[in-house]
Amino acid sequence: MKSFCFVALFLLQLCNISTSLPPFRRRNEYTPLLFFTVPKGTVDENDKMDKIVRSLEKSSGIKVQRLDILRSRSAKKLYDKLTEGSLRSDFPLLYHRESLQRVYGLADVDLVRSWSKGRLLPVEEVEEKDVSFLGGG
């Protein structure tokens, strides 16, 4: 009888321990904010933008999902899809899923803060590249 009680208590403890432990793999919570990045030290503009985004995360309490385009094939495909047809500097890229706003290249803190809140960003004029044809025209 004592062994039965011991086994029952052991199983009860085992059940309590298994429910209190976090799952092996924790899923990321949804965030509308994406930051397409590369490993640290690869691109200086990326490192500076990462500092801006980190400081904004600390001060505002927001979460920005980082997608490394050199380490993840799916992140690279999404990055290519979002930047196709763009004449701007493509990297680094901040993308807001809900407002569909994009911030290309190195930006100031105020612009990144507005982007994170989903506010309408100012439209910057992009200079188109001159195309010259050989052989007349």
Could you write a compact summary of the structure shown?
By secondary structure, this protein is of the alpha+beta class. Helix content is 41%, strand content 12%. A 4-stranded mixed beta sheet has the order 2-1-3-4, with helices on both faces.
The level 1 CATH classification of the domain at 33-117 is: Alpha Beta
SSE series: HEHEHEEH
The geometry reads as elongated
**Straight-line distance between termini:** 100 Å
CATH topology of the domain at 33-117: Glutaredoxin
Structure summary, number of beta strands: 4
Radius of gyration: 24 Å
Largest sheet: 4 strands, mixed
Low-confidence segments, given as residue ranges, are 17-21, 128-134
Overall mean confidence score, pLDDT: 75
Helix fraction? Answer: 40-55%
CATH architecture of the domain at 33-117: 3-Layer(aba) Sandwich
Tell me the CATH superfamily of the domain at 33-117.
Glutaredoxin
- Treating each run of at least 4 consecutive H or I residues as one helix, how many helices? 4
Provide the β-strand percentage band.
Answer: 5-15%
Strand adjacency order, main sheet: 2-1-3-4
The oligomeric status of these chains comes to single chain
Given the helix and strand composition, which structural class is it? alpha+beta
Keywords: Signal
Signal peptide: 1-20
